[in-house]
Specification:
Elements lengths: L1 H18 L7 E9 L4 E10 L5 H4 L1 E11 L3 E7 L3 E2 L12 E8 L7 E8 L5 E2 L8 E10 L9 E2 L21 E4 L6 E4 L9 E7 L5 E8 L8 E6 L3 E3 L4 E3 L8 E8 L5 E8 L8 E2 L1
Parallel strand pairs: 1-12
Antiparallel strand pairs: 1-2, 2-9, 3-7, 3-10, 3-11, 4-9, 5-8, 6-7, 13-14, 13-20, 14-17, 15-16, 15-18, 18-19
Length: 287
Amino acid sequence: MKANVTGFCIILLVALSKVSSFAQVEAVKYQIKYNELTCLFDCCLIIHEGSAVSAIQRAQFSAQYSVIVPAGSAIENVSNKNPIQGNISYKGTKPTIWYLASHVENPESLTGSDIYAFTPTLSPTSFYNNLNKGDTLVLFSLKISPIVSCASGVRLFENGIDPASNAPGMEGGDYSQGFTMGSTDQKYFGNGNALYPKSPKITTLYTSCNSGVEIFLDATTSGCQAPLRYSWNGPDGFTSDIKDVLISNSNPFNSGSYSVKVSDYYGCSVTRSVNAISKPDGGLIRK
């Protein structure tokens, strides 16, 4: 009986969508962005054109959200956010589940990557809160591991660019992005710019006026991206993986430009240089 009622509700929503004369969401974009507070990748929906206020306009219909990750990555949906089940009167509290519908590993037409497609549960019917042009909301959040090369291999599937279902190794799977709400009309318009983990920030880099060559460095990153690693290069073949440079018995050949690359756990990095003079011809240099 419950299934019949749910089916009737969906049919009714479709029927109402055909006669609704109110403004509705006309175009949406997908966006994936790294959340440094949760260490997760938020899969977002951007309202590109239109708005949604009435129940039918806010109702979730079918959708597919496809994500590409480096081959061999572990991926898991660990948090659902939107839309909300039974939220027809804005009183819903339980997010709908975006479940893994299909995936293909390291296809010949996209070697080095795996593709995962997520789709929302349609029963019971779920509704968004009111939506307006420019709104961005999180649909669900993914845990992806390991994260390497500053997550450069994590991105959204691009319709018309990434492999079609008949491409080599795709096993007939169609991973095209798609989104419908308020009616069966296609609303998906494209992808917004991805937001990746931030590179470490060098907060202090200076040389001291004490003897020898002394360079002091401080850098920060988010908790998820710690610890930091350091790689120094300098005059006379100098190399070091220690945070600060301390050469007590220096000579004129140690004077010159020192470059440091600061990298985090995800492979994000920043490079800076500073000039240092072998003392006693010192002085304080800040940069």
